[in-house]
Amino acid sequence: MKPYVYIAHPIPSKVEAYIAEHCEYKIWNEANEKIPKGQLKEELKSADGAILTGYDVDEALLADTEKLKVVSTVSVGYNRYDTAALKKHNVYGTHTPHVLDETVADLIFGLVLSGGRRIAELHEYVKGGHWGEEPDSAFYGYDIHQRTLGIIGMGRIGEKIAKRARFGFDMAIRYYNRSRKPEMEEKYDAVRLELDELLKQADFVVLIVPLTDDTYQLIGQRELELMKSSAVLINGARGPVVDEDAVVQALKNETIFSAALDVFEKEPLPSDHPLLSLRNVTLTPHIGSATRNTDESMMMRAAENMVQGAYGKTPKDVVKE
Ligand code: DGY
């Protein structure tokens, strides 16, 4: 008998066909609306596996899921998993590393460029019909090439960012990471620094760490004050890795030059959020990995992980505790 799985958001037909080959299944097909938590709990009671992106997978959800063997998220970040609760209920948690690394690095590089050269701001200026109202010099930004990029979190995506920076833009690479990465030092002339030193030296500071207790509000007022007044902060990690209020203040006071953010404390960003009224910020809607090319690969990888787990096998991409 095929296992039964539940998918909590729409999936491409190719991925659905793969799931159909291996499992009985049900899909929540509302793209713009989440399944209410109570209903999701009910659905999971009879499921062997599930794809649950953007849901808190915690004790409340996992209680009474007798059959559940695996939950799969279509993202590399898995901060919505309570890993202790997963362990307690003997459920594998999986994610989708590797397939999105280059894609996220592309977006982050876009944010580096926009933050330095003020692309988002200039776009608003031209679109608003203001071109010519101010001298061009009012919009000068900073060069990207041959300057210093500080990468906080030298994992797989960090490496792809370093590659673009080193070989595409001839930048100097500094990084902050728990462990030394001799291979990155060799390949990209990267230099490992303590956090404070990196913040002082970098022209562009990129955050690409997982959200954990250790990285929660890693960048706050003190850290922003260490940065150069010409520096750009880029967050491609998770919103709570920065103290958002402190970032707003630093942008208002021009403690730093600009910020370019793909992730936020609360998503979608509330319509009255102070970031929306700032000039020196580029905002994207947590879309780092989401392209027409990569989305399907991530979904397929999540489906493969779910199918493996639902059949009682150890999935390929089980998250760390
Ligand atoms: C992920 O997949 O976790 C990232 O947020 C990509 O944007």
Structure in words:
The structure is a single chain. This protein has two domains: 4-98 and 293-310, NAD(P)-binding Rossmann-like Domain (Rossmann fold, 3-Layer(aba) Sandwich), CATH 3.40.50.720; 101-283, 3-Layer(aba) Sandwich (Rossmann fold), CATH 3.40.50. Helices cover 36% and strands 14% of the residues. It contains twelve helices and twelve strands. It has helices at 13-22, 37-45, 59-62, 83-88, 101-117, 119-127, 156-169, 182-188, 195-201, 221-226, 244-252, 294-310, and strands spanning 4-7, 24-27, 49-51, 70-72, 92-94, 148-152, 172-176, 191-192, 204-207, 232-235, 258-261, 281-283. The strands form two sheets. A seven-stranded parallel beta sheet has the order 8-7-6-9-10-11-12, with helices on both faces. It has a five-stranded parallel beta sheet with strand order 2-1-3-4-5. Strand 4 (70-72), helix 4 (83-88) and strand 5 form a beta-alpha-beta unit. Helix 1 packs parallel to helix 12 (294-310) and helix 5 packs across helix 7 (156-169). It is globular and about 70 Å long. The model has no long low-confidence stretch (mean pLDDT 97). (2R)-2,3-dihydroxypropanoic acid binds at residues 75-77, 100, 104, 288-289. This is Glyoxylate/hydroxypyruvate reductase B.
